[in-house]
Amino acid sequence: MKRKARLAEPRRRRRIGVHYDTDAFGQFSEAIARTLGTARYLVWQSGVIIFWIAYNVIVPESWTFDPWGRGLVLLTLVLSLQASYAAPLILLAQNRQEGRDRAQTELDRKVAERTQADTEFLARELASVRLSLTDVATTEDLRELVDLQELQKKVDYLTEVVEKLASRLDQEH
Fold first, then answer.
1. How far apart are CA 89 and CA 96, in angstroms?
2. Same domain, 47 and 116
3. What is the Cα–Cα distance from 105 to 74, expressed in whole angstroms?
4. What is residue 37's three-state secondary structure?
5. With 0-12 CB in 10 A as exposed, 13-18 as middle and 19+ as buried, what is 99?
6. Tens digits of per-residue pLDDT, 102-147?
7. What does the pLDDT average to over 80-95?
8. Is residue 114 domain-shared with residue 155, that is, in the same domain?
9. Are 41 and 94 found together in one domain?
10. Which of 10, 60, 64, 83 has the most CB atoms less than 10 A away?
11. Could you tell me which residues come within 8 angstroms of residue 4 by beta carbon, excluding any fewer than 6 positions away?
12. Mean residue pLDDT across the chain
């Protein structure tokens, strides 16, 4: 048995048969689905079918390649073959799109959760700032303090005046 040079790499399964790149095939199927799903394609296909039928009905029977008398068997075969390949390719493209949509939805969910957590954090921070600001003196509080100081000075002045008057009255009696 031959030893592998790198033991950290897993062995690859041996496949018998056709090997293809699933991503490239998926992109191919999406391109086909995008083409088959357009109005332009339907108009062209309708034009080809109308031309096919008109040619095989109008021209002499010796020139027809799909005679009307046999029921346009070749046209039926071509359209059946197209449908048999188009349907699975369209389903494959839809499955790939569904996978991308699922991944995008998961990413959107994670972003929404992160946004909600950030919003809740900011709301808590804002509430804490508001609570902190209730203890901070405002300019109105300072004005009231200045007014109180002035009032205190006036009271002190009046107290001095009253004391002087009281001392004079005491001296006179």
1. 11
2. yes
3. 46
4. coil
5. exposed
6. 999 999 999 999 999 999 999 999 999 988 877 777 777 777 777 7
7. 89
8. no
9. yes
10. 64
11. 11
12. 86
User: Are 112 and 149 part of one and the same domain?
Assistant: no
DSSP state of 13: P
Q: What would the pLDDT profile of 17-76 be if each residue is shown by its tens digit?
A: 777 788 888 888 888 888 888 889 889 999 999 999 999 989 888 888 888 888 889 999
The whole model's pTM is what?
0.49
Same structural domain, 129 and 157: no
Tokens of 8: 């950290």
| Rounded distance between C-alpha atoms, residue 21 and residue 98, angstroms | 20
How many structural domains are present in the chain?
2
Same domain, 101 and 149: no
Within this chain, do residues 119 and 96 fall inside the same structural domain, yes or no?
Answer: yes
Query: Which pair of structure tokens corresponds to residue 86?
Result: 């188009």
Together in a domain, 125 and 142: no
Q: How far is CA 27 from each of CA 23, 81, 83, 92, 98, rounded to the nearest angstrom?
A: 6, 21, 19, 10, 14
Residue 13 has pLDDT above 80, yes or no: no
